[in-house]
Structure formats: C-alpha cells, structure tokens
Amino acid sequence: MAFEDLKIILWPDPRLRKMSVEVEHFDQNLRDLSLRMLELMRESKGVGLAAPQVGLNIRMFVMNPTGQPGDDRVYVNPVLTDATGEEAGEEGCLSLPQINAEILRDRTLHMEGKNVEGQPISETESGYIARVWQHEFDHLNGTLILDRMGEQARMSHRKTLRDLEERYELEHPKKLVKTTKTKR
Predict the structure, then answer these.
(1) How far apart, in whole angstroms, are the C-alpha atoms of residue 111 and residue 129?
(2) Could you tell me if residue 8 is inside a domain?
(3) Across residues 177-182, what is the average pLDDT?
(4) Are 105 and 14 in contact (CB under 8 A)?
(5) Above 70 in pLDDT, residue 177?
(6) Does a structural domain hold residue 2?
(7) Catalytic annotation on 136?
(8) In a domain, 83, yes or no
(9) Which domain holds residue 159?
(10) What distance in Å separates the CA atoms of residue 4 and residue 87, rounded to the nearest whole number?
(11) Is residue 9 included in any domain, yes or no?
C-alpha cells in the first residue's frame, strides 16, 4: 500500500472519535506507514502523531521527543499502566491547529507494547515523554484534548473550532450533517 497521499486529518472528522483496533500484522506496510507518519509529524512540527490522525483507526503512534532523527519512536498496541503523580502542562494537537490548553496528566507511566517489527517494548518514563504517550494514547481511544481541557479553555477556542467545523463541512458536506444530526 502506498502512503504518500496520507495527510493529517482535522477535527471534527469522525475518524478522530473512533476506538482503534489492535495491529495484527507487523509487515512492510506497517513500517512504511510509520515512516510516512514520522514524516508528516516532522513537516507539521509535531512531537507525536497517532494513526487515527491520518484516518487509520489502528493502535499505533509515532513520536520524537527531541526532534533528532535518531530519537524517532514507534509504539504499536501500547498499554499504559502504573501511573503515579500528576502535573499540568500545555498541549497542542496537530488535528486541532491553533488550539493549546493546560492539560492535567499523570507524571510517570509504564508502557508495554511492540515496536514496528513486532518486538516487545517495556518502558517507564516521566514528564514530557509520559505526557506525549498519554496524548497519543488518547487518540487511539477517540479522546481529544477538547475532552480534557477546562470550560474556559473551550470557550476561548470557540471561534477556531467553528472555523474548523465550517472548513470540514465545505470539504465533506454530507458527512458532517450525518454525524452531528440529533434525533427529535
């Protein structure tokens, strides 16, 4: 499968709200996908990118905490456990451009998962890396920073969110109506 046409999708695309499924095949397709995701993340000046953010609802994310090519990381089927402590920090999201908010996260976490080759990963991290893990892990479960920010932050981003909704509606006129229409 060719991934050169892959791009970062923006809120309110409904794929951002779906629960992702576990990866079962560790093959060249998965390696190619991870390389393209790292490329998109760098082009957008991000530090992490989850597969749902490129429209693929699989349990995988990429990250690079330093921006150095040797620090690229790929996590497949991650599970976060052993959370300790809490700390607040500012977060943004590549699928919610121009929106930043103070988000409360666990300070230290343990992660079990696999790398892109299917080899087991077992890591414990604190601070910034743990924050990125949680942000990207949220994407795998259909959770966005919009769900974690306070009411005041949501209110301050109302215009930006409305602009994103209007842009999405112009690009996908039927999809937005179907996903947001309420029954009476």
Answers:
(1) 11
(2) no
(3) 46
(4) no
(5) no
(6) no
(7) yes
(8) yes
(9) 14-180
(10) 37
(11) no
Whether the predicted pLDDT of 182 surpasses 50: no
CA nearest to 63, candidates 24, 99, 37: 37
CATH number of the domain encompassing residue 31:
3.90.45.10
Q: What b/e sequence results for 136-167 when a residue is b if at least 16 CB atoms lie within 10 Å of its CB, and e otherwise?
A: bbbbbebbbbbebbeeebeeebeeebeebeee
**122-159 residue pLDDT tens:** 999 999 999 999 999 999 999 999 999 999 999 999 99
Counting the structural domains of the chain, the total is 1
Return the closest-CA partner of residue 18 out of 53, 50, 57.
57
Q: What is the pLDDT of residues 8-47, one digit of tens each?
A: 999 999 999 999 999 999 999 999 999 999 999 999 999 9
pLDDT of residue 178: 47
Q: For residue 49, give Cα distances in angstroms to 1, 15, 75, 161.
A: 20, 14, 11, 20
Q: How many other C-beta atoms are found inside a 10 Å radius of the C-beta of residue 93?
A: 26
Given the residues 4, 91, 123, 136, select the one marked as catalytic: 136
Q: What is the 3-state secondary structure (H, E, C) of 39-82?
A: HHHHHCCCCEEEHHHHCCCECEEEECCCCCHHHCEEEEEEEEEE
